[in-house]
Amino acid sequence: MAPLRGIGACVFDAYGTLLDVASAAHRCRHELGDKLDPLNAIWRDKQLQYTWLRSLQDRHADFLQVTGDALDFALDALGIAEPGLRERLLDLYRTLDAYPEVPATLARLRKAGLKTAILSNGTPDMLEAASKAAGIDRLLDHILSVEAVGTYKPHPSVYRLAVERLALPADSIAFVSSNGWDAYGASAFGMRVIWCNRRGQCAERLPGRPDAVVGSLDAIPDLLGA
After folding, report:
1. Which residues are tagged catalytic?
2. Three-state SS for 41?
3. Which tens digits make up the pLDDT trace of 9-45?
4. What letter does residue 148 receive in the DSSP assignment?
5. Which of 194, 186, 198, 199 is nearest to 213 (CA)?
6. DSSP H or E stretch at residue 89
7. Which of 24, 88, 100, 207 is deepest in the core (most CB within 10 A)?
8. pLDDT at 226 over 90
9. What is the pLDDT of residue 75?
10. What's the predicted TM-score (pTM) here?
11. Contact call for residues 224 and 114 (beta carbons, < 8 A)
């Protein structure tokens, strides 16, 4: 992969990219038993579906509500009625684990003089709590939430928010996401995009095309000359 030149900032998706969305349920593995993996899959799928559907309906609700609604669906679908489990899972979602390579990756980028930021569907409160719990808040120059524009990715206004807040043209921003649809959305907007394709997913059939595909975030500093 050829290095990306002329980059002034590296902007990361949060959930699934910096933060392991499965880690909340894994902390409840004893209560969930063999329903752990199905719960994670349904919860995440419905969470994303509800962001897209609410955007299409023009009926925005913040990511905390959407996450709770998706969890309710998953619990109902699997017939889980453990007392207090819903509240515990939602509380744990505020303190998700960062992937192991995240702190060193952010530190290398900042040492090289690149701005670092989160651009996420999460609410400001959720993102601040999660970044502090993961110990990466001091490695970020900006935490940007879709709440500033009132709709979800991949709407262009979300990616435009990073351009405006960072005061950089889109093609000077490297956007990093583990979600293929998000990576393609940012590319279609005009950002330079690195898709962290941890699961080896096939290419999306959507507008845009990532500039680079990596399997882990620790490959990013070298791609950006950091």
Report:
1. 13
2. helix
3. 999 999 999 999 999 999 999 999 999 999 999 999 9
4. G
5. 194
6. helix 85-92
7. 24
8. no
9. 98
10. 0.96
11. yes
